[in-house]
Each structure stands twice: as C-alpha cells, then as structure tokens.
Amino acid sequence: MIGYLFGSFPTGYLAGLLAGVDIRKQGSGNIGATNVLRVVGKKYGYAVFLADVLKGFAAVNLAHFMATRIPASAQHPIYFATIAAVACIVGHAFPVWLRFKGGKGVATSAGAMFGLMPVAATIVLVIWILVFEITRYVSVASVIAAAGLPVAVAILIHTGFMHDPFLVYITALLALLVVWRHRSNFARLRAGREQRFPRK
Fold it and tell me: Total domain count for the chain?
C-alpha cells in the first residue's frame, strides 16, 4: 500500500497545474516528465523527472527499512522491497487519483531499480543513454532499456553478482508493463509522428 501511494502521487499533473495547464490535455496527454518538459519547459520537466525517480527510490528503501525492523521479515527484506517497487511503479502508471491514467513508469522504475538492484540499474541506464544518443527518441530508449533489464539481471545472477532468481521474472513483468504503456508511441513511430529531441 505504501509503495502504491508513493507511486500514485501525480507529480507531472501537479506540475502542469502549477504552470497553468492540464498536462493530460496537452502534447501526448501523458503526465510523465517527457511530456511535461515538452509542454511546460525544462524546469518543470526536470523537476518531475527527479520527483518520479525519488518516488521509486524512496518506496524501495522505506520498505527495506521497515522489513528489517519486523522480526518475521528481517531475514528477507528484499522480498518486501521488491513488492514495494512493483506497487510503486503500478501506482505511477495507474494512479487512483487520476482515474488510473498515469505515466509510463520509466523514471519511477529507474528509481526503484537503483534502490533495489543498483548494478543492474546502472547497466540499463547506460543502455538508455546509448540508444537515446543514437535515435534521439526517449520512447525507443526507454523500451529497449526496459527490455534489457531482465537480461541484465539474469546475467548478474549467472555470474554471481546477484542471488535472487525471482527478480528475473519480476523485472520481466515490469519490462512488459513499460513496453505496453508505450503502445501509443509505437503507433506514432509507425506513422512518423513521434517527436525526437534535436541534437545540440
């Protein structure tokens, strides 16, 4: 529940209201940081991105902290932290306050993964940066990075850097959620209408 409440806090929507717009009716209609940046500007966009990352990071670390203080769960805090991560990402994508119409979950997933599995998250961040630099599409970079997460986790488990095989399945489900949330981007890509960031 705590994870969901963290994730469902509608930072992008509130940033839009502060700027005098309903972000759901502007640009792509998404409440995520990318749409906020394009519609309202860099200051709001970066603030929303940072807040969404922190939501995921805070939810995971709070759950881990609480689990270590409860005798019944102190031996396996990773399970509670993982549940909080999933709940937070789901909350961001489907916030009850906005009739379950939220963001795509990329920034919140990044924060949650850095809290839960920093090595895998760093690998995926590098993938995101490389793909974005090549394509200049945030959506393409996000989808490819999400797809790479369970692969990175599987490799890290195989090589002994991680020791919880169930995380492969959890990250695969989260990757599917992120890909599914980008289906409108796929449609715009096919139609040649997806916006890309210009090179500086």
Answer: 1
Q: Residue 178: which residues within 8 A CB-CB, separation 6 or more?
A: 104, 105, 106, 109, 142, 143, 146
Note the pLDDT of residue 109: 96
CA atoms within 13 A of residue 6's CA, in its CB half-sphere: 28
The H or E element that residue 56 is part of is helix 42-68
- In the chain, the amino acid numbered 112 is A
Residue 72 clears pLDDT 90, i.e. is over it? no
Query: How much is the pTM?
Result: 0.91
Q: Can you give the residue range of the structural domain that contains 83?
A: 2-191
Q: Which two tokens stand for residue 169?
A: 């399945």
- For residue 196, tell me if it sits in a domain: no
> Does residue 175 belong to any structural domain of this protein?
yes
Q: What is the pLDDT of residue 74?
A: 63
